[in-house]
Structures are given as structure tokens and as C-alpha cells.
Amino acid sequence: MKIKLSDGSDLDIEVTRKAMKNIRLRVRHDGSVCVSAPFGVSSARIQEFVSSKSAWIENHINSLLRQQEADDDHVLFMGTNYALEVVKDRRTGVALNGENMTIFCGKPEEYKEVLQNWWVQQALASLGEIVNKWYPVLGQPEEDRPVIKIRKMKTLWGSCTSTQRTIRFNYYLMCASAECIEYVVLHELTHLLYPDHGADFKAFLSRHMPDWKERKRRLESQCAGMRMF
Fold first, then answer.
1. For burial by CB atoms within 10 Å, which of 90, 166, 207, 209 has the most?
2. Over 80: is that where the pLDDT of 227 sits?
3. CA distance 36 to 108
4. Where are the alpha helices (DSSP H) in the chain?
5. Pairing relation of β-strands 166-170 and 147-151?
């Protein structure tokens, strides 16, 4: 299904039929548009509904594009939105100065690789320090300290394989503020004691971090819909 935009171009609309009562329209973060409709609704009715929403769809897509353009010039790191600057230099690295992040590299078009290498190093160092802070509350032997790994994950801030004593933290967790990162670290460490999210798990979290629910809420708020580089 297609609709015509104000510039004369056609926009593809993904149509899905489901067991539901009303037609629902959604613009995804990548700018694609999908509509869900009840099984009994005709294609003509769906087309009419979507066409009536064309102005809303176009405004929403344009808003997303403006946000993406702004995001290209900034990087969210540990709760601070840094203005991004790329400098051609014989040096390779990243420097933070106030609210500015400067990336030095020989080939400016390869700045993302430099940033990502630095990001992983920062993540391992910062998360390692927080693990060192909280691991003792588990009351487990020092030699059983978990292995920390950094991975890009789509849906989880962290995961714990207690049998292998391995914790994987989401690469993008470092976008969050320090207190929210600390919550995720304690959350995953707690899984070394309690694999599920049952009453014992929550009681342990509440005992050692009474405001964990508020930190979780702030994490979801800070990083909701952020554009990953």
C-alpha cells in the first residue's frame, strides 16, 4: 500500500491484519510506516484511513529526520550529551573537554571506528570498577569473580550466565548516567545468586540498593528511543 506525500513522492505502508478491534498506525524509529487492521476491514477502508493521516505521518517522519540530524553531531556518554568534533591528526584517540568530545584520527571518515574502540575501553574500565565495588556484597569467593564482556545487544542492558560466571553488558549502557549503570551492574551480579527475577532476587536488590526501581525508571527514560551509532 502507498500514500502520496506533499513533495509528490510515494511512501510504502506495511499492512498487517490481526485479531483486533481498531486500525492502528505507527511510524517506526527508522521512518518506516506500518498499519495493523482487523481481519474484516477492507483494503479500501485501510487506504482511506491511512490517507487521512498522511499529514500526521509526514510530520512525524520529518521530526525523526531532524532528530537524527541533530544526533549525528552529538554523542550521549554517561548521561552527558557531548557535542562531537572530528579532527584530522596523527594522533588517534578521544578527548572530553566540558561538554565537547573530540575524536582525533588520521582519516576523519573512519572516526566511528576510533570512537567505538575508545568506547569499549571506557566501558570495560568503568564497569570493572563498579563490579569491584559491588561484588563483595554477594559474599562469594574472590576467585569466582565473574568475567566481564561488552556486546552490542538490541533488547537487554545486560545478561548473566551464572554457570559460566560471565556477565555481558550492552555496549550502549555507557550512554546512561552513572547511577543507572550502577543499577544494571548490581542487577546482573545478583543473578549470580538468583538466576530468576523472583522474590529473593528483588529482596536482595532492595536491601543493597533501596532506590533500584527509581534508577531503573531513569534508565528507561534517559535512553528511550536514542539513536545508536
1. 209
2. no
3. 43
4. 43-52, 54-71, 111-134, 178-190, 199-208, 212-222
5. parallel
**Separation of alpha carbons 153 and 159, rounded Å:** 10
> Rounded to whole angstroms, what are the CA distances from 24 to 9, 15, 46, 166?
23, 10, 10, 42
CA distance 28 to 64: 9
Contact yes or no for 79/222 (Cβ under 8 A)? yes
- Flag the least confident range among 6-15, 102-111, 129-138, 168-177: 6-15
What local confidence, expressed as pLDDT, does residue 11 receive?
84
Query: Looking at residue 65, what is its pLDDT?
Result: 60
DSSP of 93-129:
EEEEETTEEEEEESSGGGHHHHHHHHHHHHHHHHHHH
- Is the pLDDT assigned to residue 225 strictly greater than 90? no
How far is residue 33 CA from its own chain's centroid? 21
- Please write down the long-range contacts of 139-146, taking CB distance under 8 Å and 24 or more positions apart: 140/192, 140/193, 146/189, 146/192
